[in-house]
Amino acid sequence: MPYKLKDRNVLVTGGSRGLGAEISRRFAAEGCNIAINYANNESPAKDLAKEIESSYHVKTLIVKGDCGVMADCRNCIHETIKAFGSIEGIVGNAGWTKFTNFNDLDAMTEEEWDKCYAVNVKGMHALAKEALPTFNKNAEGGFFIITSSIAAKSLGGSSMAYSVTKAAQVHLMKCLAKVCGEKARINAVLPGLLLTDWGNLYGPERIAGLKDAAALKKETELGDCADAYIMLAKNTSITGQNIHVDSGLAIQHL
Ligand SMILES: NC(=O)c1ccc[n+]([C@@H]2O[C@H](COP(=O)([O-])OP(=O)(O)OC[C@H]3O[C@@H](n4cnc5c(N)ncnc54)[C@H](OP(=O)(O)O)[C@@H]3O)[C@@H](O)[C@H]2O)c1
Question: What is the DSSP letter of 2?
Answer without folding.
Answer: P
